Amino acid sequence: MRLHISLILFLTASLVCQSQESKIPVLTPGYEQRIRDYVDTLKVIDTHEHLLNPTLLKLTTFLDFSLLLQQNSYDGLITSGMPVTSLRKLYFEPTPVSEKWKIIEPYWNKSFNTISNRIMLLAVKDLYGIDELSASTVEALSAKIKKAYSGEWYNYVLHDLCNIRYVILDGDNVGAKYDYVKYAKRFSTWLSLNTKFRIDSIAVMQVEPIYTLEDYVKSMSVAFEDGLKKGMAAVKVNIAYKRSLSFEKVPVETARKVFRTLINGNEDLVLPAKEAKQLQDYMMFQLLELTKKYKVPVAFHTGIQAGGNNFIGNSDPALLTNLFYEFPDVNFVLFHGSYPFGGELTTLVRNFSNVFIDMNWTYSISPAYSARYLDEWLDAVPASKIMAFGGDQRCVENTYGNLVIARQVISKVLTEKVKSGYWSEKEVFTIARMILYDNAAKFYNLP
Ligand SMILES: [Zn+2]
Predict the structure, then answer these.
(1) Residue 186: domain span
(2) Rounded average pLDDT over 33-50
């Protein structure tokens, strides 16, 4: 009898295996190249940049090779030991190119390996035809950069070379000059309030006195509505650079009490962090009420911070969980693939219908992380919740380099999915379109 049951189980298992095998898509030779070609030619929405205004850039002292080192390469130079006082000579004083290179070279030799530097070199080679950064190339490279920016370089690189159809800038710094450039607005003035001076500044700016907490909340609504008139595509919150992403629901009476302490204090009063947090938390809830009312998505900086010397625990995306519950009608996107909190991000996006992933910046932090987690996210969460490209750069050259690497990483991950028989070739084409364009278009309401 026992033998009989074993035989039945064996036959059943064989049949199940056969039926599963028959579902595995048949691989058609050449799929690797076809996926690569497809991903390389797809139009893209770039969901996050800090690109400097190209007109204003011409007025600075860094329209030379040092422009390309902002911000990621510069951070590498600093963490390799370059004194922070170098910043002034490199970016705020008219310093000759050769002298800039002398400051940078010892630390470049220590940090040339990082992916952000490789991305920059890739762009230097493709866009300017120069193979390396050295004493013998920085002058020629700087001359080529100056010449490039005398024309429509911004447009040419982003639109023509990268095939980027929309860019969302952090801040409205190019105005209406480019119709494909949208912007996300920060409300840091309200979210990080801790001095009376700041309240007075807003009152002066808006030509409207602020006496009460209600006046203060109103001043944020005025700024919000002004942003809407100027085409604000999203609210950006980067407060993790200054404090924890944990926001408690603070009663209005408590917030009002703290506000009164501030408004009745001396001009130089700075609130202790604990008290300031109560007021700031209250303002975050008020801001989210506005995003709910006007149906504006919210982008949170999560994970790794630029500039070094930060507290990474402050930017753990799991700290935002209560906000996702409180505001189910607001769509939240968590930036930078929450590096290094990729697993937490998987869990949040899987559990909340209003939480999305944005991989901007991750490629120039670590392509290995980007590939590992894109692979995981594509297994664990709906593909419609992943936005796979944003450069998070100051200049278009580095956006170009980032996009080259991003397309490589995406192709590699999708090719492995096909190779493993997990998805068909047709399915990965659909996924690629979704994560590079369609999802961001829907999220930011772009045509
Ligand atoms: Zn950014």
Answers:
(1) 154-443
(2) 98
